[in-house]
Amino acid sequence: MSHIILARHGQASLLERDYDKLCANGETQSRLLGEYWARRGVVFGSAYSGPRFRQRETARIVAEAYRRAGVDFPETAVMSEFDEYQAEAVLRECLPQLLKNAEIKELRRAYEKSSEAAASAHSDDRRKKFQRLFEAVISKWVAGEVTADGIESWHEFCLRVERGLAQVVRDTPPAASVVIFTSAGPIGAAMRRALHLSAEDTLQMTWMSRNASFTTFLASGERFTLSTFNAHPHLEGDGLLTYR
Q1: What is the distance between the alpha carbons of residues 118 and 220, in angstroms, rounded to a whole number?
Q2: pLDDT (0 to 100) of residue 19
Q3: Which of 25, 84, 180, 207 can bridge 48 by disulfide, Cβ–Cβ 3.0-4.6 Å?
C-alpha cells in the first residue's frame, strides 16, 4: 500500500496583478510544512508538482526546509495533470452570462463597491466579497447552468487529474510515499476519485481545502482510499489558516 500525499500550495496573491505567486504568508506556510515533515522524519520516494508557479514554488520551499534539516528530498517532476482548472477564464467567460441572475448581480455589485472603498488589495472585506462571487459563478459552471466555450470543462478537468493520479500510482513502489504539490481543485478531484462524489460535492470539498494543508490517500492497484483530508497541524500561528 503506497501513500499518495497531495499538498495544496501556500497562500497565493489574491486580487493582485499576478495571482500565481506566493504571498509572504504563503511562503511561511510552505516553509512550516517542510519543517514539520522533516522533523517527523517523513521520507518521500518521489515528488511531483503542477506547472503553476505557486505550486512549484511551494515544492521548492518545502525541499529547502528538508535540506536545511539535513534530510534528502527528491527532485520534483512537473506534471500538467495536476494543474488547477481554469478558474480565471471561467469567471471571465461566465460572469457576463449570469448578470441576469439577481443573486449574481448583487454579488458583483457588492464586490465592486468593496473594491472602490478598499485602501489596498489586501482588504479582508474585498477578499470575502470576491470569494462569494467566485464561488457562485463556479458553482453554476460546475452544475452545467452556464458554459465557457474553449475552456476545459469540470468533468474533463477531473478526468485529467485522475489520469495523473493513475500514472503516479503505477510509478510508485508498494509501501513508498510520494507527494504532489497542487491546488484545491485537483485535491477535490482526488477526493471524487476516492469517495465517488458528485460534481457539486467535489466542488464543495475544494472550498474547504486550506493553503499548505495536505491530504493523504492509500493506493494499491485499483484501490484508492482516503486516509486524511485537509491536515494542517503545522499551521498554528495567527493568520496561517487561509483558504485563498
Answers
A1: 50
A2: 83
A3: 180
pLDDT in tens, 86-111: 999 999 999 999 999 999 999 999 99
Prediction pTM value = 0.94
Per-residue burial over 47-79, b = 16 or more CB atoms within 10 Å of its CB, e = otherwise = bbbbebebbbbbbbbbbebbeeeebebeebeeb
**Domain range list for the chain:** 2-85+152-231, 87-142
Report the chain's mean pLDDT, rounded to a whole number: 94
Asked if pLDDT for residue 35 goes beyond 90, the answer is yes
